[in-house]
Amino acid sequence: MTNRREVLGSILGLFGSANAQANDKTNKIIKPPVLKKGDKVGMVAPASNAYEPEEIAIAKENMEQYGLEVELGKYINAQNGYLAGTDAERAEDINTMFRRKDIKGLVTFSGGYGCSRILPFLDYAAIRKNPKVIIGHSDITALILGIHSQTGLITFHGSSGLTGVEQYAIASFKNTVMSTKNIGQVAKPPNNNRNNRLITIRSGKATGQLIGGNLTLVTNLLGTPYEPDTRGKILFLEDIGEEPYRIDRMLTQLWLAGKFDQAAGIALGHFVDCVPKEYQASFYQTLSLENILRDRFGSLKIPALYNLMFGHVTDNAVLPIGVIATLDATAKTLTINEGAVI
Questions:
Q1: Structural domains of the chain sorted by starting position, each given as residue range(s) with its CATH number in brackets
Q2: Looking at residue 323, what DSSP letter applies?
Q3: pLDDT confidence tier of residue 279, bands split at 50, 70 and 90
Q4: Could you tell me if 4 and 109 are in contact, meaning their C-beta atoms sit under 8 angstroms apart?
Q5: Is there a catalytic annotation at residue 148?
Q6: pTM reported for the whole predicted model
Q7: Residues 6+ apart with CB under 8 A from 106
Q8: Are 48 and 139 within 8 A, CB to CB?
């Protein structure tokens, strides 16, 4: 999988002004219509392109496992270096899918890099007028956070098409976007083996809106109009392929920006392969990932729970951005208190 650090570059410069401020406007929360079996959804590639054509077929088939009819975006096969077409082409696919009445939702091909580049080119008025489910993770974090910040639309952090999905992820998807019922407990590990063991960093209980996604992308949105607002919210984070000191650096940046002090609670997912490099490690000595998380979150006066079942994993729970949830780090649970669709 592409290491985002190698391709991200300086995101903030893309938005022109060095003193760009987060959008302070509070948008009314909009719940998208529920997806139903047989609905037609559009698959778009807002970030990196397919390395091989067969990957698009695999992604389409994965999303069809949910019982949906999948239509490919016009530019999903486009190639522009490491991007799936130009910024204008990728944005056009998204805008078109939101405008079309026969398309009931949007799913994403994969992450990689590129979503931040298209945020200024999205038609937020059309998205607000035609609310639909849109889902993805990894680099798609920038897209779903950007849309949520500008429209109030509940967006969904969950598996993209190229992400391998099994019954856990399929059940979470159906429970979250194909049902209007209260969602209930989410991201509970399917077993209690060492890799899935839930760890309380700081005990306590808090309720607030869910906000977050991939740590790298959350950090890169700081100082832009799409910066996530964590005030009184449950901030959820995950990442992949970053050495421990880089996780430390990004968490420290969020801490210095006040994002943790403002939050009601911290829900941490899986941090996959976030270990020192075996060859030419950056430091002779290191801290473990768990030690870094305890150091950064243990002193906060808010609950923090680590190793919930979401992130770059096959058993990837769907987390709706903007819904009310309760994090109980003492009981080791994350519960969504309402439905995410209508």
A1: 4-336 (3.40.50.10740)
A2: S
A3: low
A4: no
A5: no
A6: 0.91
A7: 41, 42, 43, 44, 94, 97, 98, 132, 133, 134, 135
A8: yes
CA distance linking residue 117 with residue 334, whole number of Å: 32
Q: Rounding to the nearest 10 degrees, give the CA dihedral for residues 310, 322, 131, 270.
A: -10
In this predicted model, what pLDDT tens digit does every residue of 141-198 receive, in sequence order? 999 999 999 999 999 999 999 987 889 999 999 999 999 999 999 999 998 888 999 9
Name the active-site residue from 116, 138, 149, 160.
Answer: 138
Here the tokens at position 287 are: 């801290």
Q: Is 312 a catalytic residue?
A: yes
Tokens 């509970």 belong to residue? 188
Alpha-carbon span 322 to 209, nearest angstrom: 5
Packing angle of the helix pair 244-256, 289-297 (nearest 10 deg): 10
Give the C-alpha separation, 51 to 177, whole Å: 29
Interatomic CA distance for residues 266 and 247, integer angstroms: 15
Instruction: State yes or no: pLDDT of 11 exceeds 50.
Output: no
- In sequence order, what E strands does 225-329 have? 234-240, 265-272, 304-306, 319-321, 324-328
Average pLDDT over residues 247-266: 97
Which pLDDT belongs to residue 192?
Answer: 84
Q: What is the pLDDT of residues 36-80, one digit of tens each?
A: 999 999 999 999 999 998 999 999 999 999 999 999 999 999 999
**Residues 96 and 123: beta-carbon distance below 8 Å:** no
Of 89, 92, 238, 243, the active-site residue reads: 238
Strands 205-214 and 324-328, by their bridges, are antiparallel
Using DSSP bridges, classify how beta strands 234-240 and 205-214 pair: parallel, antiparallel or unpaired.
parallel
